[in-house]
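Sanity check. The docking grid for adenosine-5'-diphosphate depends on where the pocket ends up, so I'm generating a full predicted complex first rather than guessing from homology. Inputs follow.
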Amino acid sequence: MEKLIIFSAPSGSGKTTVVKHLLKTFDQLAFSVSVTTRKQRPNEVHGKDYYFFTEEEFAEHLERDEFLEHEEVYKGLYYGTLKSEVERLWAEGKAVIFDVDVKGGINIKKYYGDKALAVFLKPPSVDVLMQRLKGRDTEVEHELKERISKAQEELKYADQFDQIIVNDQLNITFVTAEKAVRSFLESAF
Ligand code: ADP
Ligand code: 5GP
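Predicted complex below; grid placement will be based on this.
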């Protein structure tokens, strides 16, 4: 059965942390590697964390209608999921797990309906979100401000998801997320 699991949340809520944990826990899951035009971070690997494209490359794929969804997530920074990525992972017999922004998550859910479980990972508060983003130390001040103002907007869309998980204590979040994924993977629908 072809299935998808979407984790969306404001930047800094803990999506990457939780999705990495789920990938270690469930053999059936495979990560949908997105395309981005943002700069590669020192710990990131091309083809594993993202496909790092130039703007020109991104535009070429867009023109050929190769994206399942795409977004200018931050000013001048484009992100998108290639249709071929989902097909590739399904062909390997995997359920596909996504780490995408809130709009992207809603779009993927709309497209795939019951084949997809859409989870919104919520920070305990905007203050905690700010601390986590600062602690990650991957953005300069004006980027931090942009991410926090986008986060406040994104929090309004939580109700459009199948499930909301508040990421307060990480060990509890892991267990709750595992439970949600396990019951979705086991469901026959
Ligand atoms: P996202 O992928 O949503 O942007 P990350 O997974 O990169 O978020 O998490 C942002 C930062 O917060 C990271 O430094 C991560 O280690 C930390 N973090 C994630 N979850 C928790 C948690 N429950 N408690 C404390 N710190 C957390
Ligand atoms: P970051 O730059 O921190 O890796 O990601 C910034 C935001 O872009 C995150 O909210 C992340 O989930 C989102 N994102 C990553 N890949 C995609 C994608 O393919 N599509 C959309 N719409 N958002 C994405």
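Relevant for the grid: The first helix runs from residue 15 to 25.
Also worth noting: The chain has one domain: 4-186.
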